[in-house]
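Title: Prediction job returns without error message
Component: structure pipeline
Severity: low
Priority: P3
Assignee: unassigned

Description:
Job completed but the reporter wants confirmation the result is attached to the right record. Sequence as submitted:
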Amino acid sequence: MKLKRFIFLLFLFFSLYPFGAKAEFYFNPHFIISDDEATDFTSLSLQGIQNFLADNGSALARLTLPDYEGNDKTAAEIIWNASQESRISPKLLLATLQKEQSLVTSPIPTQNQLNKAMGYRCPDNGVCNPKAFGFGKQVDAAAWQFRQYFNNPSDWYFRPNQTYNIDGFTISPANQATASLYNYTPHESGNRHFWQIWQNFWGKDFPDGSLIKASGDPAVWLVQYGTRRPIASWSVLLSRFDPKKIVTVNLADLEKYEVGPAIKFTNYSLLKRPDGQVFLLVDDELRHIASEEVFRNIGFNWAEVEAVTDSDLAAYFYGTEITLESAYPVGALLQDKITGGVYFVENGIKHPVTAYDIMIVNFKNRVLTTVSTQELDKYQTGNPVLFRDGELIQANGDPKVYVISNGTRRWIMTADAFAKFGYKWDNIIVTSSSTVALHPLGDNIE
């Protein structure tokens, strides 16, 4: 009965988190954006603001409007000038424009939308202060207001690390930017809407296989199945991943992912369930060792077997059982002594390793063993080995850089996108165009 329930739980997990699932992001009301994001007044140039409005089909891209002094300026100039004078991020101003009056995506805004552009001095009763009317006045005043929150935090109701009841939610702003957003809009729903806009405009959807961590926090997470999976220890991380691939991200970008099952054990651990069955763990796959005889024949050591609970194994799935007939249960790197062809043999299947770069990166700690053609002919041929998820690859002579995710190559279209995701140029693997082409094209990363 316990076994049936255990299998059901595994089935449920992989139904909820299928391979290649797109993340459904989660709102953290205590941390909406970082202080750096809120105050980075260099995050968009004047031309960058103009391009952003045009790309979103906004009428603001073509409108000339009075600024707060009554001088005609383009909407982009008004936004940029306000951000520079108050040293507030133009992204924050753009997201607020969208939250309050949908002006970033509105192709034909009304005069009322422009007059109340930032919702400044427009309380919930709907009666706005007419002296604050006008696009230029709204943008400039809102930028100034956000700067006051940062310069004089004790003058305002919502403050960091204090607890409040907001619309029935118990909320403790973790930083000044979040407290400022609640001071500007004292509602959970309004700030949830702001956060969703921010994610739609500038959020980072990390490809599966990414290793991420928040600045100042040693915890490392694997982005997988649309979740972030905690890696239990440094030894566990080293057994499966390359620490050079860890990307430091903003806390808001980390916490938008739901927490998935932990990666608790080092690769190739021997794990004993309460019912006495022993399994070899290979990545996320549990392989049952059929008998003590099999265990001895392979050369495993009983002293290395770790007792675990069923709940410890909930993040893993069952693979092929290891029997006396199983060839290379932990995998082996074999080379045909006649042809020179290299294969990774596992579970009775030989996977061609068609590129030296893949062999060096994927199997750097494996011994290459020369065998006869007859030995290799015993095994069925499977799919060729690909670069692992999270690797950055580039074809020799081609400027395009790809990240591998779910076995596909996703083109990182610009240097800005590369920097946005925290990738490191030193981690790019330059290989042949034919090796790159082994990986089917996935969605581009902009």
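Comment from assignee: result matches the submitted record. The chain has five domains: 35-202, 204-267, 270-308, 332-381, 392-437.
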